[in-house]
């Protein structure tokens, strides 16, 4: 495969790789985007579409009072392709941005393949080209041969954790006489199907869950789990009430059948615009499939649930970024090579896409001779880049967007007021930063 030295090479066609290629192309750079699927598949992917979502179909909160919502606004200011396509493929999910995953991936693929400056090359890459700027965005399911190449490049050991996927069931298979549609505190539309449990039902379910058989891990791969994607059964083992105060907490919900708040509630979120498929929110799991059928059908309303996708687990790989990367996402020892996406140690769809935006902008600046630029610490994107490049390398763990990463702000003391102030400052700073970036490029 011949590569032009005047082009940026992006390895990986996931959320981060797509954003990196798009950003560089929109700033006048020719891009070769290398994606191994569908010729070589991963344990979790099912199609050859670019930006295929393999876990939840939700990109998280779109509210400005949340860090995730603020991050999305920052990305929109930077011209995010992922969020542009997500808005066109959106399905009802209350205050969250959820998408029809097939439509979303198809829209992204079409936009990228039709761009005159992006050349999509469908083949597995087992080496990182030299003498040309490269963005490595191979994701948490990096192929073995590329993993070896990255290990040689970074000279650092890999860290890893196991990521779990929640089951999807058909709406027609649930007993709607036992569930009610609502959003917590009435925020947004009634887009969630809620399966209420009384205390006795909850206790029976909890006991069955903690005793259920799980898929064993390999002897040479100790189970290391990320808190933000903890399997439901692992969380349950922390205590009898762990779920009732966790993903099954009933706050902000009232069962119209009883007029009271349930003891616990399981929420189902729409997977497609018509709501024919429902995702079991927070039910990422490594239970064996027959155990998922047995245990999850104990939930009121799901006695006859039809599973179109069972929960599964897969190994996610990420580099020890504090040892390897600058906050510009450049490799310290090879500044023409950048990393983006979950492989850097950010966790979440939008967080991964955001680092792709950063890497694409940095690569464009490098090619144009302007040099990389640090994103402001007052922004969510800047704070994520700062975290992954400066965290304690001995205890480095993946990180979601959160206001705790931002520099403190004087004034408001109430939690909601403080969040609004942090969000307002972040967006104000990002608007000024975008002007600087766009004028330079």
Per-chain topology:
Blueprint: E1 8-11, H1 15-26, E2 31-35, E3 58-61, H2 67-77, H3 81-88, E4 90-91, E5 96-99, H4 101-114, E6 118-122, E7 134-136, H5 144-154, E8 159-164, E9 168-170, E10 180-182, E11 192-197, H6 199-211, H7 232-236, E12 264-270, E13 277-280, H8 289-296, E14 307-309, E15 313-318, H9 321-324, E16 330-331, E17 334-339, H10 349-367, H11 380-390, H12 415-440
Parallel strand pairs: 1-2, 1-7, 2-6, 7-17
Antiparallel strand pairs: 3-5, 4-5, 8-15, 9-13, 9-14, 10-11, 11-12, 12-13, 16-17
Helix pairs in contact: 1-10, 2-10, 2-12, 3-4
* Order of secondary-structure elements: EHEEHHEEHEEHEEEEHHEEHEEHEEHHH
CA(first)-CA(last) distance: 29 Å
Mean pLDDT score, rounded?
92
Strand order of the largest sheet: 6-2-1-7-17-16
Helix-and-strand structural type:
alpha+beta
Report the biggest beta sheet as strand number plus sense, adding barrel if it closes.
6 strands, mixed
Name of the CATH superfamily of the largest domain: FAD/NAD(P)-binding domain
> How would you name the oligomeric state of the polypeptide chains in this document?
single chain
What features would you describe in this structure?
The protein has 441 residues and is α+β, with helices and mostly antiparallel strands. It folds into 2 domains: 8-160 and 317-440, FAD/NAD(P)-binding domain; 168-311, Elongation Factor Tu (Ef-tu), domain 3, CATH 2.40.30.260. It is built from 12 helices and 17 strands. It has helices spanning 15-26, 67-77, 81-88, 101-114, 144-154, 199-211, 232-236, 289-296, 321-324, 349-367, 380-390, 415-440; strands at 8-11, 31-35, 58-61, 90-91, 96-99, 118-122, 134-136, 159-164, 168-170, 180-182, 192-197, 264-270, 277-280, 307-309, 313-318, 330-331, 334-339. The strands form 4 sheets. Strands 6-2-1-7-17-16 form a 6-stranded mixed beta sheet, with helices on one face. Strand 16 and strand 17 (334-339) form a beta hairpin. Helix 1 runs parallel beside helix 10 (349-367) and helix 2 (67-77) packs parallel to helix 12. The longest helix is centred in the last third of the chain and has 26 residues, at 415-440. The radius of gyration is 22 Å and the shape is globular. It starts with 7 loop residues before the first strand and ends with a helix.
